[in-house]
Amino acid sequence: MGRDCLWKAWHKACLNLGIKGVDLYGGTKHSSTTDLRKYFSPEQIKRATMHQTNKAFERYFQVPIDDIREIYQNTAGKELAKDEERNVIGE
User: Fold this and answer.
1) CA–CA separation, 50 vs 45, rounded Å?
2) Would you say 42 and 51 are in contact if contact means Cβ atoms under 8 Å apart?
3) Beta bridge partners of 75
4) Cα three-residue angle 75-77-78, rounded to 5 degrees
């Protein structure tokens, strides 16, 4: 494996998908931030990805409309826990 192996694979994948202007650093940072959203709070992810400003973090931490829709569908007709320490729906 050469020094530029990962960069070449990224570049080829972007060409195949028609993606322009996304470098390896930006693309992998966005992917990491997006995936971590499933497991951690925005504050924890911001610390882990070492973002210095909210503006930079917000570029990577965008919630897709499907995720928002799922959250609201999962809470429809259920009583949400009033205790802020609990994150359990319907108890």
Assistant:
1) 8
2) no
3) none
4) 60
pTM of the model: 0.46
pLDDT tens, the chain, 91 aa long: 677 898 899 899 999 999 888 888 777 777 788 788 888 888 888 888 777 777 767 777 777 788 778 878 887 777 666 555 455 554 4
Question: Residue 53, CB half-sphere, CA atoms under 13 Å: how many?
Answer: 3
Phi-psi category of 32—alpha, beta or left, where left has phi over 0 and alpha has psi -120 to 50? alpha
How many alpha carbons lie under 13 Å from residue 75 in its C-beta half-sphere?
Answer: 12
Structural contact between residues 87 and 75, judged by C-beta atoms closer than 8 angstroms: no
Question: How many separate helices (H) and strands (E) can be counted in the chain?
Answer: 5, 0
